[in-house]
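# nightly structure sweep
# worker-07 picked up a monomer target from the shared queue
# config: single-sequence mode, recycle default, output format = structure tokens
# input follows
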Amino acid sequence: MENAESTAKQKASFFQVLKAVLWSMLGVRQQKGYENDAAKITLKQAVIAGIIGGFVFVATILTLVMLAIKYMG
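# output follows
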């Protein structure tokens, strides 16, 4: 019981939040990992990481499309 309480009080690191958001974007997540992330990640962390991840994803797609157009066309 103490272990669960101490885990819930810990705040997730930046890399833990980033990893959780990336796995969520892919739609692949184990139940144990989800529960662990849910106990550590705050809503503020998840929203900020999600917005950053979304921008990085869109920028990557746009870059790939622009490179494809430049070299294919």
